Automatic annotation (TrEMBL):
Xref: InterPro entries: AB_hydrolase_1, AB_hydrolase_fold, AB_hydrolase_sf, Epox_hydrolase-like
Entry-linked SUPFAM superfamilies: alpha/beta-Hydrolases
Keyword tags: Hydrolase
Residue ranges of every copy of the AB hydrolase-1 domain listed in the record: 36-275
Species assigned in the record: Nocardia fusca
One MF annotation (Gene Ontology) recorded for this entry: hydrolase activity
Name the UniProt record assigns to this protein: Alpha/beta hydrolase
Length: 291
């Protein structure tokens, strides 16, 4: 009798899958087996934001890293509303489509904004929660709040919407995010992968649609319910984030029972700038007993 040998490295290599959520194509990378761990990216990224974590965390876990609808390779369907409540409920329906009952959820940036809402609205779906550099229940520092607020205001009106969807928007974002090439977080090729959708009319139309549904304001209703989150929680934070105040991380760790705060010497996109430290923080979090 012969026994096939499984290559551990191959087991950790993500496979590409597709499913349908709200009638739209959702693409995701998956690796490993075991209890499910969902990694949710933020703006303006894709599952590639987690590329350094997917393999290591798939040892003993089934890791799923979606391209959230509108981003990466997933569909950009302007028929889908992008307001907060719709997006949080859509996240729950994504879990249904993936046939996942309860998951460990690690989420960054916009993903953390949605993930916080999921943990509050659907507490039985989240076994453990990790939030990484996200506006969460708060908002951005003043200059970024004004910048993003200008995008939302423009995208809700005819002329402004056309400006947000115009070809120069790619160059604007490339200039704004080039600091992450200079500090080594992104390669030029990776930044272009994230921004490539802004080179197409379809991608720009969806981008304007996204901003039209987004709200920059503080969400006091989310802050008021932080104490209701009773799953093991970690707040992993790049302390040099120029857009989101450290006070947000401190408040999350203080107000969520059973939460810890892990500080990392990094900027906003910490999974790519400090991958080993983020991976180790998440491994410690996953070792904590679940409720």
């Amino acid at each position: 009798m012969t026994t096939d040998r499984i290559d551990p490295a191959a087991h950790r290599t993500p496979a590409w899958h597709e499913t349908t959520v709200d009638g739209a194509r959702l693409c995701y990378a998956a690796a490993g087996s075991g209890d499910p761990l969902v990694l949710l990216h933020g703006w303006p990224q894709s599952h590639l934001a987690w590329r350094e974590q997917i393999g290591p965390l798939s040892d003993g876990r089934r890791v799923l890293a979606p391209d959230w609808l509108g981003w990466g390779a997933s569909a950009r369907d302007t028929a889908l509303p992008c307001d907060y409540d719709s997006e949080v409920d859509r996240l729950a329906r994504m879990l249904d489509a993936l046939e996942l009952d309860r998951v460990d959820l690690a989420c960054h940036d916009y993903g953390g904004f949605l993930g916080l809402g999921l943990a509050q609205r659907y507490p039985d779906r989240v076994r453990r929660l990790a939030i990484l550099n996200s506006r969460a229940h708060g908002t951005f520092v003043a200059r970024y709040a004004l910048l993003f607020g200008a995008f939302t205001t423009a995208a809700r009106h005819g002329l402004g919407r056309r400006l947000v969807a115009a070809p120069p928007i790619h160059a604007v974002h490339h200039w704004g995010l080039h600091r992450y090439v200079r500090n080594g977080t992104f390669t030029p090729e990776r930044l272009e992968q994230y921004l490539d959708m802004l080179r197409t009319p379809e991608g720009r139309r969806w981008y304007a649609h996204f901003w039209a549904g987004y709200q920059v304001r503080v969400r006091p209703e989310l802050g008021a319910r932080l104490g209701e989150i009773d799953c093991p929680t970690t707040v992993v934070w790049g302390i040099r984030d120029p857009a989101i105040p450290m006070a947000t991380a401190v408040e999350l760790a203080r107000e969520i029972p059973n939460a810890e705060l892990v500080r990392i010497d990094a900027d906003h996109f910490l999974m790519e700038q400090r991958p080993e430290e983020v991976t180790e923080a998440l491994r410690r979090w996953l070792r904590r007993p679940a409720r």
